[in-house]
Amino acid sequence: MKLDRVVLRHLQMEQKSPFSTSYGTFKTKDFILVEAIDEDGVSGWGEGVAFNVPWYTEETVKTSWHMLEDFLLPLSFESPFEHPDDLNKRFSFIRKNNMAKAAIEGAVWDLYAKRKGISLSRALGGEKKTIEVGVAIGIQKTTDELLRIIDKYVAEGYRRMKVKIKPGLDVKLIASIRKHFPTLPLMADANSAYSLADIDLLKELDQYNLMMIEQPLGSDDIIDHAELQSQIQTPICLDESILSVEDTRKALALGSCKVVNVKIGRVGGLSEAVKIHDLCKAQGVPIWCGGMLEAGVGRAHNIAITSLDNFTLPGDTAGSSHYWERDIIDPEVVVKDGLITVPDGPGIGYEVNRRMVDYYTVETKTYRGR
After folding, report:
1. Omega of the bond prior to 331 within 30 degrees of 0, cis?
2. What interhelical angle do 270-283 and 245-254 show, nearest 10?
3. Residue 51 · residue 60 · CB < 8 Å
């Protein structure tokens, strides 16, 4: 497989409503859309998931563009390759910048599957025909508003609710949710808002039968999480701390978590995500696919990876209409009774709507191989 050219597009899409976490609130989603085109004119699509501000990881839209333009695209054009895994190896000497790596690697995975005439799900080793999905809900102005939103999503059939917590908005909030929804599959996402000094507070969450608490401590920590997990009953799920299969191995060896969140962009691409899946499966550790407020292309990649058999917990891949007035793919991602049908067409299984892509694009640049 040889790349002829790659088109980078900076898109800007308005969400239906603001999304708030312990580290900030935003409504406009800026991201990079990558189109990789081979010498036969076949296109593959990838999506960068970095935000404008480095509050989730150190990457931003601007730094991702820089890494793609100056390092990753030249490496991608360097010579032909047999499989997308070859890019994972080719990029290995570049430290981190995982979201930039995942953006071009995802486009190449889509291109590879299309050239093979198979779905991306099948190319990755997935076998599921449908996947279970939950929904992530940002911090709301009032508890009553949050309860109303949860009730709406329960009625729509979502299989799990994830709510954001932070100091001062945690135990009482979870207690209120449990009072109204005593059996609801529920998890709390802390986005690294706590420390070991909060152990007694976090222990209070044990009584509410949460599926897990996600990333309660430092974003780069696995030591303190191991201490916390030894003292609380609620399973800890690591998110920001897991950047690779090696991070996963070490976290599991230390007992830092009982569940792992796999985000394609955070771990550097689909190839690394498959490695993490295989390791966790071998050790009997459940995993699920986290979301980064993706548009349609990134959402399609999440669906494909979730079709692997050890993604046993509902992920964050809600339907397109949950976020956007109009997505950039046809058909849009649709959730029915908490399930998404895994497409079986070549590649990601969705058509990129170029008219909508042009509508949202604020900058574009084409890069050509030698």
Report:
1. yes
2. 20
3. yes
pLDDT digits (tens, 9 = 90+) for 317-357: 999 998 999 999 999 999 999 999 999 999 999 999 999 99
DSSP class of residue 343 equals P
List 111's β-bridge partners, or say none.
Answer: none
Write out the catalytic residue numbers. 164, 263
H or E element that contains 94 = none
Report if pTM > 0.90: yes
Whether residue 245 contacts residue 221, with contact meaning beta carbons closer than 8 Å, is answered with: no
Q: Where are the domains of the chain?
A: 3-117+352-362, 122-341
Chosen CATH of 3-117+352-362 out of 3.90.870.10, 3.40.50.150, 3.30.390.10, 1.10.10.10: 3.30.390.10
Handedness of CA 244, 246, 250, 252 (dihedral sign): positive
Question: Among the listed ranges 9-23, 90-104, 150-164, 200-214, which one has the minimum average pLDDT value?
Answer: 9-23
DSSP string, 43-82: EEEEE----SSTTSSS--HHHHHHHIIIIIHHHHHSS--S
Q: Which amino acid, residue 119? A: S
For residue 119, list its beta bridge partners.
Answer: 347
* Helix (H) or strand (E) run with residue 6 in it: strand 3-21
β-pair partners for 214: 189, 237
Alpha helices (H) in 241-347, listed in sequence order: 245-254, 264-267, 270-283, 296-306
pLDDT of residue 49 exceeding 70, the answer is yes
The sign one gets for the Cα dihedral 229, 234, 237, 238 is: negative
In 3D, which of 301, 316, 359, 315 has the Cα closest to residue 107? 301
Q: Do domains 3-117+352-362 and 122-341 have the same CATH topology?
A: no
Q: Which fold has domain 122-341?
A: TIM Barrel (3.20.20)
Q: Which residue has the tokens 């580290």?
A: 23
